[in-house]
Amino acid sequence: MSTPTEEACEVLRADRAHLIHSLHNVSLHASAHVWTSGSGAVLVDQSGREFLDAIAGLWNVVVGHGRAELGEVAMRQMSQLAYASTYAGSSNPPAIQLAERLAELCYPSINRFFFSSGGAEANEAAIKTVRFYWRRRGYADKVKIIGRHWGYHGTTLAAMSATGMANYWPMFEPRAPGFLHIADPYPYRFERPESAANNNDERTVGQMAADLLEEAILREGADTVAAFIGEPVQGAAGVIVPPDDYWPRVREICDRHNVLIIADEVITAFGRTGDWFALGRWGIEPDIVTFAKAITSGYVPLGGIGVNDRIAEAIDTAEGEEAWMHAYTYSGHPVCCAVALANLDIIEREGLIERAAGLGRRLRAQLDTLAAHPHVGEVRSLGLMAAVELVADKTSRAEFPPEEKIGPRVHEATQRRGMFTRLRGDVYNFGPCFVTEERQIDRMVEILGESIEEVLGSP
Questions:
Q1: What mean pLDDT is predicted for residues 323-348?
Q2: 319 falls within a domain
Q3: What share of the chain is helix, strand, coil (3-state, %, to 5)?
Q4: What is the CATH number of the domain that holds 341?
Q5: 399 with 407: CB under 8 angstroms?
Q6: Which among 226, 228, 278, 309 is least buried, having the fewest CB atoms inside 10 angstroms?
């Protein structure tokens, strides 16, 4: 990377002196970028260098950077009504219109929506809501939430407890009680149960992974399990794409044992997989869907939950001490909801979901050209989200020792060539803006290929 200017160094000194970052790490931040502008799929840092944004901010800037019309919508709404509460007894037109719009776009059984400021808040709301629902139904002991080992649902206390990535836990223990985790439908690394290997078990990886959910429900007792929470495609974990028979079997298991499904679509909703919402491609619907990120393309903070009609009825008919007592000051914020409506207009008007699906096919085809490298273990994708997993040995799928820092070294090499993204260890993630140009997709893959060769040698 180029030597930063004195002005950039001074800004970073002020940053280190006063700003605490998400996933704070002083050593990682030593050569940080201070992003100052963006256009389309390109970010510009304070030194004036341009970078291809291979992760769309944090999976969220789907309509691209620099969309002035979204700023204009925010300004108009601020001028008219900057803030109003949506506590019972108050509402505002943008919040009502957005809920109505989502009812048209979302799963057919989901018609009611509550808004938060982001994805972690949305998952907190979903966790509380499933417990509320079962208590209203007379099952006060149904409180446990089952997640997955590589699941990511946020870092607030309950969301962190639902998150299965253990590196988020140590300094914040004890976690909230009532959360447990099972293995993921991770075909590349799924370990068949020993009993299955010894008994000539003919189940697929998807079926075995789903059956782990049933085993956990039976082990805990179905009368104690409130919900299963899962991302349709696990993003932060390194784009883990489930086999096609996984989610339908999960739905069957949950129905059989009276367990709700929370679909964490914070990353996948609004087109990332090539559909408005992701589970529809497998022909099922969740009981609660959580969303954030792409609903505003990150231009203002907004998230929320959608609940099915049974849960909505339980909320509507509760009174007194049984009322759904869940509140955020900024729920249904009129400016955020107005920007979300305009953002959804852009997605529809410009055909960006279809474009995301097409770009995803191009990205996958290009990434497949890297698969011959002896240290590219797997290329995987769905829609416009993809990952390249680097391994020490292709045959055994052995991982590199963490101290070799292969992923971070490749990431540094890609930055020197003008591309920025997020990693999970030695897994390199892609989740570009939906407006990324085809030549930019091609260049992203070219940069990654060059960087892999720099760090790990030519094939």
A1: 97
A2: yes
A3: 45, 15, 40
A4: 3.40.640.10
A5: no
A6: 309
